[in-house]
Amino acid sequence: MLAVIAIDGPAGAGKSTVAKLVAEATGLPYLDTGAMYRCVALLSTRTGIDSSNESGVAAIAESIDITFKGVQCWMNGEDVSQEIRSAEIASIVSIIAAQSPVRTAMRTQQQRWIQQQGGGVVEGRDIGTVVFPNAELKVFLTASPEERASRRVDQSGGDLKEIAFNIAERDRIDSERVDSPLRPASDAVMVDSTGLSITEVVDVIVDHFTHSLEKRHG
Q1: Is the pLDDT of residue 77 over 90?
Q2: Is residue 117 helix, strand or coil?
Q3: pLDDT at position 1 over 70
Q4: Which residues make Cβ contacts (< 8 Å) with residue 197, sequence separation at least 6?
Q5: What is the SS3 assignment for 122?
Q6: Residue 52 in contact with residue 95, Cβ under 8 Å?
Q7: What is the overall mean pLDDT for the chain?
């Protein structure tokens, strides 16, 4: 079994921040699957393909070259780490991520990456349920809607009410999509980060991972 820590959860739950620190603490490489879908959204926008054009978006997803250098995300040889975080991309990424051909293409890349790396900390929305159902540890990370919106404002600025609305809409789309809806795996460790520090959340996950390894290896 590859050493995979799958961290799933809704928008604004702190998955990226926590996953990066868990990767540092465990010595495992880190994979941000959300960035991969954002790359597809970015390239679709650049090439004038509407997010609702499933065949056009699928063609991009099947041919796009996405690589990671540390926490930097590169698309077709270009560092797009900042550009994929724009409000424009955020507004369409859920539409694109809900399309089955896109998810299939990204899933293949994610599984290949883990095989090449020999394991890793992978965060997203269907990692423990679909992409790596046999992960060493599955975590479903969440927080109250109010805290999630507040965190996004602290990170990127903006209007709190608007961001709260966007997060609620993202939750709805992610939870209702037919292919790989957002939901915790049946054996996931549920972690509510409301009121907890980042360090406390990371410690909880690392402790569970260490315990899982000790239990498996006796």
Answers
A1: yes
A2: helix
A3: no
A4: none
A5: strand
A6: yes
A7: 92
pLDDT tens sequence across 94-139: 899 999 999 999 999 999 999 999 999 999 999 999 999 999 999 9
> Which of left, alpha, beta for 31 (phi over 0: left; psi -120 to 50: alpha)?
beta
Q: Give the domain CATH number at 86.
A: 3.40.50.300
Handedness of CA 113, 136, 21, 35 (dihedral sign): positive
Q: 115: burial class by Cβ within 10 Å (0-12, 13-18, 19+)?
A: exposed
The token pair that represents 33 in the structure block? 């699957």
Number of domains present in the structure of the chain: 1
- Sheet-wide strand order for 119-124: 30-32, 119-124, 3-8, 137-142, 189-192
User: Is the Cβ–Cβ distance between 144 and 167 less than 8 Å?
Assistant: no
Is residue 134 within 8 A of residue 183, CB to CB? The reply is no
Mean pLDDT of 188-201: 95
The predicted model scores a pTM of: 0.87
Rounded distance, CA 198 to CA 176, Å? Answer: 29
Domain enclosing residue 25, as ranges: 3-217
What is d(CA 20, CA 201) in angstroms, rounded to the nearest whole number? 12
Tokens of 200: 């406390």
